[in-house]
Design goal:
- This protein has 675 residues and is α/β, with parallel strands linked by helices.
- It has three domains: 3-249, LigB-like (Protocatechuate 4,5-dioxygenase, Chain B); 296-327 and 373-554, TIM Barrel, CATH 3.20.20; 569-662, Golgi alpha-mannosidase II (Immunoglobulin-like, Sandwich).
- 32% of the residues lie in helices and 17% in strands.
- The strands form eight sheets. A six-stranded mixed β-sheet has the order 1-8-2-7-3-6, sandwiched between helices. Strands 19-20-21-26-23-24 form a six-stranded antiparallel β-sheet, covered by helices on one side.
- β15, α15 and β16 (443-444) form a beta-alpha-beta unit.
- α6 crosses α8 (214-229), α13 (371-386) crosses α14 and α17 (487-507) runs parallel beside α18 (552-564).
């Protein structure tokens, strides 16, 4: 496979193409320009910017700076030549040189066989200093075709699409003038007389409304690296970023922060920065914002405090669902309309999580202009409930909100409440779920709900417990959720509920069930849907917890077993064992010293009796001289005398599982155990 062996970066400013004596001309041109922006993105005049710095003192430093830049450009060209590259990916912007409003791609990969650079065309009377500067981007006499690398370009496009980037593709330029200055600078100033093939990658860095955000660009860089690594060749590939960091209104602190992050391999600044420097404090929110309240039909904040206190007396911790959104009549909609996403006509957009639409929910815009006050208010909501004894939060759909907000908020809350637990309720692509775990979420939802066959369960839980995923992702196995009523529960009857309960409680160290599971609630809103009929999302449900045919006794027994046997309190010790029946799954867990050794056998058929032979972890069992050993079913108290490695089981929908305590052979555990 190809190798990405070198990475370079350079500004392509016209100032790099100008001698020191021409800088006064650039200054005069800048003074006439009316579109300058300050460091916060606000329009500002040249005079106002000049007053913010000692302009005359800066001009005195121009000559040595021009000389230093020229030396470094020459050094960069030598470094590219010395890297012995077969091709160079060039990432640059297009300032409406090829792409206009009729087709303005956020990302575009050029895949033509060659790419043209044209001759400079300026209006009559253009100043000499400007002509000299611009000419360095273009050919002096006639257009020239430079070599491109269409095979690599097309492969990058295909790989990016697989990585969920909707990237544009082009085999020819949109206009006749030739490549934009970001790419012309590379050809004319950096690649020498015999330039190597290039793959131009165009990024819209400036023009609204579809400029990619910094975190998206950072993700694109990682995806391009993966694309190169999967390109079937032994070629040496380089990548070059053509363009400056902060523009015109120079922010040296930001520039150095980005450069240091690149040097240190730290993606945090590029990925989560929104134009602020590391260490900068966010603006504090306005005093008097609401911090928390209780729906009147449920009681008051004081009632909630009494509820938390009584739960604590019983040894129970309260968890809250953290859903950052608002109803159309929420006070935030009136007091802070800028906190919400708006349509072009000024109305606020309702929430969507395709294919679902929620017209009664207004989603929050985490990257709005007033994001500082918004972030602090959302953090303060969590702190309000933390102060009332709540330390566990199930975060609703975190993958649909700004990742950099979660990293900041979780870290800030933990400064004051270090024992706080955040569970990511995110049923989304594996990469996103893993990324949420890495940025700070303590626990993660999983695909357990959709893993129902023996092969599916074994493959998925092997990934969770015996690959590098286990180092950062702690699964929480929910058998059902307010949004997910799987077909297995809809069609399987009470047996399906018993099976999924035992699987969730024993495959994972942490599991959960949603209200109604105890009563076998299994009616969807319509055939083929996974949503509940009479969902609690739209009403307060009052249930009869003493109803007949209640699953609560089994839940209580399973939870007691989990508390009493430490082997079930870990994820890493999970091992799967053989069965001769595909409808039966067998697995075990143990403590590091093997003092607690548990074998779980579960039928996956909720409607019929299943039987067969199952394999025991014989290398971990203390056996009698004749090979026999006792096995106790912790669910029923039944005791069996097993012998050897394979033993017979019979399971029914009424009793679909054994949780067997086996006599562990001291220190016979060869597995990595822990969490």
């Amino acid at each position: 496979m190809a190798q990405l062996v070198a990475a370079f970066g350079s500004s392509h400013s016209p100032a790099l193409n100008s001698p020191a004596e021409d800088m006064a001309g650039h200054a005069r041109r800048d003074a006439q320009y009316q579109g300058h922006l300050d460091k916060e993105g606000n329009r500002v005049s040249f005079e106002e910017l000049s007053r913010q710095s000692d302009f005359s003192a800066e001009m005195e430093k121009i000559a040595p700076r021009v000389a230093a830049c020229g030396a470094h450009i020459a050094r960069l060209a030598q470094a590219i030549a010395g890297a012995r590259l077969d091709a160079l990916i060039v990432v640059g912007d297009d300032q409406k040189e090829q792409y206009l409003e009729d087709n303005l791609p956020a990302f575009l990969v050029y895949c033509g066989k060659t790419i043209a650079n044209g001759v400079l065309e300026l209006p009559p009377g253009a100043p000499e200093y400007w002509t000299k500067a611009r000419s360095q981007y273009h050919e002096p006499d006639a257009p020239r075709e430079y070599r491109a690398f269409p095979a690599l370009g097309r492969h990058i496009v295909e790989s990016l699409v697989e990585s969920d980037f909707d990237v544009s593709y082009a085999e020819r330029l949109a206009k006749a003038g030739g490549e934009g200055h970001a790419f012309g600078f590379v050809h004319r100033r950096l690649l020498g007389p015999d330039p190597l093939p290039v793959v131009p990658l165009v990024v819209n860095t400036y023009y609204p409304p579809n400029q990619p955000r910094p975190r998206r660009c950072y993700s694109l860089g990682k995806a391009v690296r993966e694309a190169v690594a999967s390109f079937p060749s032994d070629q040496r590939i380089g990548i070059l970023a053509s363009g400056g960091l902060s523009h015109f209104t120079i922010d040296e602190a930001l520039d150095r922060g980005v450069l240091n992050a690149i040097r240190d391999g730290d993606g945090e600044l590029e990925q989560f920065g929104l134009g602020r420097r590391q260490g900068e404090q966010l603006d504090q929110p306005a005093p008097g914002e609401p911090g928390g309240a209780v729906e009147a039909s449920l009681g008051t904040v004081e009632d909630f405090d009494r509820f938390v206190a009584e739960a604590a007396r019983l040894g129970i911790e309260i968890a809250l669902d953290l859903a950052y959104q608002a109803s159309p009549d929420h006070p935030y909609v009136k007091t802070h309309p800028a906190w919400f996403r708006q349509r072009p006509d000024g109305t606020i957009k309702y929430a969507e999580n395709p294919p679902k639409k929620y017209q009664d929910i207004y989603p929050i815009d985490f990257e709005c202009a007033e994001w500082r006050s918004l972030w602090h208010e959302l953090k303060r909501v969590v702190e309000f409930w933390c102060a009332r004894g709540v330390r566990i939060y199930r975060v609703d759909n975190p993958h649909t909100k700004a990742f950099h907000f979660w990293e900041w908020m979780i870290a800030e809350v933990r400064r004051q409440y270090p024992d706080t637990i955040f569970l990511a309720e995110a049923f989304t692509r594996p990469k996103i779920m893993k990324y949420l775990a890495k940025l700070g979420f303590d626990q993660s939802y999983t695909y357990f709900t959709w893993r129902n066959t023996r092969t599916e369960l074994m493959e998925y839980f092997t990934e969770l417990t015996h690959t590098e995923v286990r180092e950062y992702m702690r699964p929480n196995l929910f058998a059902n959720t307010p949004d997910i009523l799987h077909e297995y529960l809809q069609a399987g009857g009470p047996g399906a509920f018993r099976i999924r309960l035992v699987l969730a409680a024993t495959l994972g160290a942490t599991y959960g069930i949603y209200s109604g599971f105890e009563l076998y609630e299994n009616v969807p809103i319509r055939p083929g849907s996974e949503e509940y009929l009479d969902s609690e999302k739209y009403q307060v449900r009052v249930r009869n917890w003493d109803a007949p045919a209640n699953l609560s006794p089994l839940i209580a027994r399973v939870n007691a077993i989990r508390r009493e046997h430490r082997a079930l309190q870990s994820d890493w010790s999970l091992r799967f064992f053989g069965t001769d029946n595909p409808h039966i799954i067998c697995y075990g867990k143990s403590t590091p010293d093997n003092s607690s050794l548990v074998l779980v056998v579960v039928s996956l058929d909720p409607r019929h009796m299943q039987h067969g032979w199952v394999q025991a972890p014989i290398d971990q069992i203390r056996t009698a001289p004749d090979g026999g050993y006792p096995s106790e079913d912790l669910l029923t108290g039944a005791r069996y005398l097993w012998r050897g490695e394979w033993n017979y089981v019979r399971l029914t929908p009424e009793h679909p599982a054994h949780i067997l305590l086996l006599p562990g052979l001291p220190n016979a555990n060869n597995n990595e155990n822990g969490r």
